[in-house]
Amino acid sequence: MRLPTLQSGRTGFPGAVERLVTFWALAGGVTLLVIVGVNVLEVVSAITRPVTGRFSGGVELTSLLAAVAAFCFLPYCQLVDANVSADIFTAKASPRAVAAFKAVAAVVATGFAILLLWRMSEGMMDQRRYGLSTTILNVPVWPAYAAALVSLALLALASLVSLYEYVGRAAGRKEP
Question: What's the N-to-C CA distance of the chain in angstroms?
Fold first, then answer.
């Protein structure tokens, strides 16, 4: 089993996208660590409630941050070719044919990223306009949408980089 890794040797625009996507995925990892901290605080608060009071709202923060973290990993998965695929259909195909299929998938990913970017930006503006916030902590919801929009923009860029690389492979261009 091959583990996904970043392609070494990307320069220019693809290299810049690779660095941004990697940074964003690391930010998603830090977000997961914050979720762990919130949940530890929630457990400790429940145990020590009679003495110290309690921390409320852990579920709210966990749900917002989990959504943010999940979106943070999407561009990285696209760039390192770690998306779920059914390889049974391409097991006997040539590398150039597989690259052509992956190029089509990159076009679809770019389209979906742009579509979701458009619709979620409208959703974020609605959340902001109506002031939706969490029930217990009264945390505004729209910043989670903003983080998702950054992820979707990076997903679109990562999909374009993937498209460029897969079209090159399908055409027989050597790896950098």
Answer: 23
Cα–Cα distances in Å, from 94 out to 9, 88, 90, 98, 114? Answer: 24, 13, 8, 6, 30
pLDDT digit string, tens, across residues 138-159: 999 999 999 999 999 999 999 9
The answer to pTM > 0.90 is no
Quote the CA–CA distance of 143 and 145 in Å, as a whole number. Answer: 5
Question: Could you state, in order of their start, the residue ranges of all structural domains in the chain?
Answer: 13-81+89-170
Grouping H, G, I as helix, E, B as strand and the rest as coil, residue 140 is strand
pLDDT tens column, 20-40 = 999 999 999 999 999 999 999
Task: Spell out the residues 6+ positions from residue 56 whose beta carbon is closer than 8 angstroms to its own.
Answer: 136, 137
In 3D space, the residue among 145, 95, 82, 83 whose CA is nearest the CA of residue 117 turns out to be: 145
The residue with tokens 């409208």 is 122
Backbone angles phi, psi at 140, to 5 degrees: -60, 145
| Torsion, Cα of 41, 44, 50, 55 (10° steps) | 10
Q: Are 136 and 57 in contact (CB under 8 A)?
A: yes
Contact 158, 75 (CB under 8 A): yes
